[in-house]
Amino acid sequence: MRTFPSFLLRPLLWLASGVLALLLSGCGEPAPPPSLLEQIQQAGELRVMTRNSPTTYFEDKSGTNGFEYQLSKQFAKQLGVELKVITASTFEELFSSLVDGRAHIIAANIVDTPSRHQFARFSKGYLEVVPQVVYRHGQPRPRSISDLIGKRILVSRSSSQAELLANLKRQYPELSWEESDDVEVVDLLGLIDEGRIDFTIVNSNELATNQVYFSKVRVGFDIGTATWLSWAVAGGKDESLLQAINAFLDTAKANGTLNRLIDRFYGHVEKLGYVGAYAFAKHLQQRLPRYERYFQKSANEYNLDWRLLAAVGYQESLWQPEATSKTGVRGLMMLTQRTARAMGVEDRLNPQQSIAGGARYLAYLNDTLPDEIPADERIWFVLAAYNVGMGHLDDARKLTADAGLNPNSWNDVREILPRLARKQWYSKTRYGYARGWEPVDFVRNIRRYYDILSWIGQPSLEGRQLGRSNLHIPGLDRNSSLDR
To answer: Which of 251, 245, 241, 238 is nearest to 41 (CA)?
Structure first.
């Protein structure tokens, strides 16, 4: 019988064993199904369920905005997929969307509560909030839970506030309240403002954002403990999406993305304060309707957002056409005599001329800025230059670069601007001393007023509490008159 040399037999045995392993692997268990995160990436779409509110997601004439929308958009971008936003009309719908698979994530200003664990798991927290009892100015201020007993209290159904009240009822059996699917925070505050209910409970961030619309709303006391807003995903063993969210939030905190969004949507709330909020709410109704068409006309002429132009006018004069400062700037847009002359304004106290001159000046400043400042940053530099002058702004940008920061980033430049008031720094600049903190406050306040005008003017409000009230809705009120 013929035999093979050993040096040939050994490779044949290796080959046979390899073929046998391949055959056996083909008969084994199938490959595991893709994880939820892999499914999302393969489909190329992240479905996010949220609420329509100024703290979450809203659409206006300028496009889509909101804190939760912007944060979700960043996460979708990191995953390399498209973001699809779905809105829910109730809290129950929010969580049912996870159960039935309509949504991958709830990003809707929600907090982690025990009752919600049957539907979802929660991410790390990204914004600390406190539930607050709200009442109407002129009524006795509530200072404890005992003061709530026997009063008309309304909250959103299935909200964390409703769950908080249910827990408190164990200690205070006489405590009672009503829940409704038909109310959002803006509706609840409107009902307080009109005196139709005694109290409601809202989270501190939502109150701070909405308080400007209602001059009679006040905080009674903090109820419960501080908690954190989180995102929610469906329950189950697959943690791939939740892990990706937590990693994203960690990165967003570390690289400043989260802080920039918090500052964008909440950072200027405290600066406005209660007094400023109530004054703005009143002036929005009494003064803005007189000049709204002037803002719209001039903004269209110079390719500006009229609400931004109106926000500048409010910051400068509180929409008072005869305003005059100690330094000689005058009019609704508070133009200097030199600027007014350059912008073709003959009468600074004429509101139509003043608004037109302010719009033209903003457009001029935008054209004067260096091209390297990106489009999404330019407006903040324009506003700063409107306040402090282009020369001082150039000085601040140079100091920013000298500090190793980005002179084309408003977040970096605003950190350096206050140095213009200190000799150690302004002695190194071309234009010298300036009250460098003022343009920082100026821009922050205008951003706040602009946000308010953007949110209150969105068409979806027409069917809600603001739309049903007698409030003037900027951009929607057809009865606004130039001679009111």
So the answer is: 241
The predicted pLDDT at position 27 comes to 52
pTM (2 d.p.): 0.66
Strands in 253-365 per DSSP E: none
Q: Can you tell me which residue has the tokens 């791939």?
A: 240
Burial of 435 (0-12, 13-18, 19+ CB in 10 A): middle
Identity (one letter) of the amino acid at 363? A
- Do the Cβ atoms of 480 and 293 come closer than 8 Å? yes
Length of the chain: 484
Distance CA 300, CA 269 (A): 29
DSSP structure class, residue 379: H
- H-type helices in 170-268, by residue range? 185-193, 204-210, 240-255, 257-262
Pairing state of beta strands 227-234 and 127-129? antiparallel
Strand partners, 63: 60
CB burial of residue 17 (10 Å; 0-12, 13-18, 19+)? exposed
Phi then psi dihedrals of residue 61, to 5 deg: -65, -15
- Catalytic residue, chosen from 316, 346, 372, 377, is 316
- What's the pLDDT band for 13 if we cut at 50, 70, 90? very low
Catalytic residue check, 316: yes
Distance separating alpha carbons of residues 191 and 184, to the nearest angstrom:
11
Q: Which of 361, 272, 378 is nearest to 313 (CA)?
A: 361
Whole-angstrom distance, CA of residue 419 vs CA of residue 433: 9
* Cα→Cα distances 370→361, 390, 413, 434, Å: 16, 11, 14, 21
Distance of CA 298 to the CA centre of its chain: 27
Percent of the chain past pLDDT 70, that is, above it, reads 84
- Condensed to tens digits (0 to 9), the pLDDT of residues 93-145 reads 999 999 999 999 999 999 999 889 988 999 999 999 999 999 999 999 999 99
SS3 content of the chain, % helix, strand, coil (to 5): 55, 15, 30
Residue 306 has pLDDT above 80, yes or no: yes
Picking from 449, 437, 444, the residue whose alpha carbon sits closest to that of residue 279 is 449
Alpha-helix runs per DSSP H in 132-176? 160-169
Give the residue ranges of DSSP H helices in 197-268: 204-210, 240-255, 257-262
Dist CA 374 CA 407 (whole Å): 11
Which residue intervals of 350-434 are DSSP H helices?
351-368, 375-388, 390-402, 410-416, 423-426
